[in-house]
């Protein structure tokens, strides 16, 4: 099997699986319980917090335990919850302090787009930034949209469908330099452990990440929040996670998350390099600007995406049409860049993980070449 859909979810790393199973057996207690098993689970939880914080480059939060007024890294159920917490929390925090204007892009993940659309229906004003034909959005385009009443700017770090990298640190520098009140959120789900990511130099106020994109388990994620930023909680209950995210924490899940962060790594750049070279040789058209090392979107003109994927499936090679959340529906990213319909219908995505190899890339390219020949020959036969 050749699995090339790591941007949707990655196979669990062996070390993370072992960490999960051990914790499920030994550290299953409620971390809020005062007895010894509870204290052990709490210790594991906080060790995991420090590990993930360390991998985010946040030295301050490595020694940080929560207080009522300050936070660092909060564990969640995944990227969607982290994005919702950031967007609704930041919007509410700044509604009266700064204003109810939001800046975002048309290529964000649905976990960002849908919460912002909800705020728009509730009376917030939103500037939706349109990318160019390569799915790029410039620093100037973003900063020129920020106003005195902009309370929130939300821009992803890496586009999950195209691999474009967006200028988060430049946006943060502009907001700080001009003493604006906007809070900056970035969905870094496709950036964490894929490209160098240091929250201190990044400059964002809120950063969302997820476990299952880096070899952890589905159902765990985190949100990093700048110290001193006391946002209203999205979930109310027992006051776990510093009062910001109530609900019993899962020490086993977050332990697997932190272990995956330790043993994951950047996908080898040679995988993308060889894929791009091979795609050019077989006449495929690369879509977007695959700046990140692990995501390449492309189309073979005249070869429908679903037909191509079925062809590859039969050969145990697995890619995708784009975001798994779309479930095969037309991508809003390609609509935003106004990609011609013939390319939209053929658009697919390859996304690498640490376990992929050059031999798998060569096998994919060989299968793509065969698919192009067979599918086009079949179409000609039908037309005759």
Describe this structure in words.
The chain is an alpha/beta fold and 384 residues long. The protein has 2 domains: 14-263, Aspartate Aminotransferase, domain 2, CATH 3.40.640; 266-378, Aspartate Aminotransferase, domain 1 (Alpha-Beta Complex). It has helices spanning 14-26, 36-55, 59-62, 79-94, 110-121, 139-143, 168-177, 199-202, 251-263, 269-281, 305-313, 332-336, 341-344, 358-383, and strands spanning 2-3, 73-76, 101-105, 125-129, 150-154, 183-187, 206-210, 221-225, 285-287, 295-299, 317-318, 347-351. The strands form 3 sheets. Strands 2-8-7-6-5-3-4 form a 7-stranded mixed beta sheet, with helices on both faces. The chain has a 3-stranded antiparallel beta sheet with strand order 9-10-12, covered by helices on one side. Strand 9 and strand 10 (295-299) form a beta hairpin. The protein is globular and about 65 Å long.
Topology:
Blueprint: E1 2-3, H1 14-26, H2 36-55, H3 59-62, E2 73-76, H4 79-94, E3 101-105, H5 110-121, E4 125-129, H6 139-143, E5 150-154, H7 168-177, E6 183-187, H8 199-202, E7 206-210, E8 221-225, H9 251-263, H10 269-281, E9 285-287, E10 295-299, H11 305-313, E11 317-318, H12 332-336, H13 341-344, E12 347-351, H14 358-383
Parallel strand pairs: 1-11, 3-4, 3-5, 5-6, 6-7
Antiparallel strand pairs: 2-8, 7-8, 9-10, 10-12
Helix pairs in contact: 1-9, 2-9, 4-5, 10-14, 11-14
């Amino acid at each position: 099997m050749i699995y090339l859909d790591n941007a949707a979810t990655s196979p669990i790393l062996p070390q993370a699986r072992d960490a999960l199973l051990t914790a499920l057996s030994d550290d299953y207690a409620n971390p809020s319980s005062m007895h010894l098993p509870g204290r052990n689970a709490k210790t594991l939880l906080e060790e995991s917090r420090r590990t993930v914080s360390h991998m985010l480059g946040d030295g301050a939060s490595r020694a940080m335990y929560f207080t009522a007024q300050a936070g660092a890294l909060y564990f969640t159920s995944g990227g969607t919850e982290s994005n919702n917490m950031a967007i609704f929390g930041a919007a509410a925090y700044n509604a009266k302090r700064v204003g109810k204007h939001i800046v975002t892009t048309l290529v964000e993940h649905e976990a960002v787009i849908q919460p912002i659309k909800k705020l728009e229906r509730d009376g917030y004003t939103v500037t939706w930034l349109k990318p160019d034909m390569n799915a790029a959005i410039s620093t100037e385009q973003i900063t020129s949209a920020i106003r005195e009443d902009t309370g929130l700017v939300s821009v992803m770090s890496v586009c999950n469908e195209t691999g474009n990298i967006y200028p988060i640190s430049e946006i943060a520098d502009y907001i700080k330099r001009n003493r604006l009140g906007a809070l900056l959120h970035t969905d870094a789900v496709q950036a964490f452990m894929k490209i160098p990511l240091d929250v201190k130099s990044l400059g964002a106020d809120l950063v969302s990440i997820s476990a299952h994109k880096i070899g952890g388990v589905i159902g765990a994620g985190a949100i990093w929040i700048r110290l001193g930023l006391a946002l209203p909680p999205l979930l109310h209950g027992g006051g776990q996670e510093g009062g910001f995210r109530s609900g019993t924490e899962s020490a086993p899940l977050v332990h697997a998350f932190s272990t995956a962060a330790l043993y994951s790594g950047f996908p080898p750049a040679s995988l993308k390099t060889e894929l791009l070279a091979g795609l050019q040789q077989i006449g495929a058209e690369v879509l977007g600007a695959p700046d990140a090392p692990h995501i390449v979107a492309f189309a073979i003109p005249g070869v429908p995406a679903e037909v191509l994927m079925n062809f590859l499936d039969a050969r145990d090679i697995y890619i995708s049409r784009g975001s798994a959340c779309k479930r095969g529906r037309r991508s809003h990213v390609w609509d935003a860049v106004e990609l011609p319909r013939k390319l939209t219908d053929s658009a697919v995505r390859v996304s690498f993980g640490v376990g992929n190899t050059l031999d798998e890339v060569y096998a994919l390219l060989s299968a793509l070449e065969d698919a192009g020949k067979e599918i086009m020959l079949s179409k000609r036969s039908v037309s005759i």
